[in-house]
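Lab meeting prep.
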Amino acid sequence: MHVRDLTQFLAELSENNNRAWFVMNKPRYDILRAEFLELVIRLIGEITRFDPAVAACNPKKALFR
């Protein structure tokens, strides 16, 4: 996952929180969201080792736009 790209995107989003900017940057969002989802899936897998209750967590529902 490219943390630098994610933090840059979020910083730009906070300065340009409007539909026009988001539509122009949707491809970036889609890529970064997919990478972040993969990270969440891996984290759930690792956390499940010591907290089995986390295994029931749906990674897509754990994310908020």
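Slide two material, second protein:
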Amino acid sequence: MKYFPRRSETGIGPEALVELWRAKSQDRGWLRDSDWHCSATRVAAVMLSKRRDPDSAVRSLASRRAAQGVGIAESLTDLQALFEVFPHPDSQGLQVVFADAWVESTDLFSHQLTCWDPGSGLSNRQHFERRVHELGLELERVLERHGVPGQSLHLDVEPVPVDVRALRRLLGTLWH
């Protein structure tokens, strides 16, 4: 059950702000709608829409995003989406507060959170999906910058060899 106070002084209520923010964040590249909503997004919306100091709400949101395993780039893009739909006079300062809190949280949780499967040493599914999504966005930017149509790009996929020498050969081709 969601609880939001009545209309705020700014003319936009917290619930409407959350929905506008979520939509903007998804437009800017948020991966999954299901992991965007959290209590910290609601608190940030309430604090901003009521024109209260959002510092602690922004710190809390950063900690939550870090604990979810959301990378700093995606997290900051999400925060920028918030300030696009609801400008704040100190948005740059709040971005610094957010980044600091995100880094602090990852330091605190680093012994509990991992992006790697301890059994195989490979990236876990969530980390892999996020990186592929980021790699795809960056590849699009590079292709656009050089005027290369995305449809002209083809990737070869090769299974990882079990034999150590074959694995070294494959890895060695990545840097040549």
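Talking points for slide two:
Helices lie at 14-27, 39-49, 55-68, 72-85, 91-109, 125-145, 164-173.
The chain has two domains: 14-109, 114-151.
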